[in-house]
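Render this sequence as a predicted structure.
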Amino acid sequence: MSYVDELAEAVRRAVPPGVLPDGDTSALFRLYAVLALAKGDGVELENVHDAWAAWMSGRDPEHRSLKPLAELPVEVQRADEPYLEAIRAVARERGLGR
């Protein structure tokens, strides 16, 4: 297993199971791992949404949330918060601070 996949799996484990998307999320969590590596615990909600949007563009290019984060209703924006917290927590645990 590569270091990126190992980090992606750590982020996945840090997300509450009830909010995980259905289907194969390997590519999504690799993107989140890259955010942890690049931004550490300084990752922002917009970064998480952008990574999700890149992933969703390949799955459902017509998805209603494929818009910049600021254009989405607050309740939709909040859906990215568990992922943000998971990325930050894993980054802190691994010394990937900003």
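Summary. The two ends are 25 Å apart (CA to CA). Residues 45-59 form the longest helix (15 residues).
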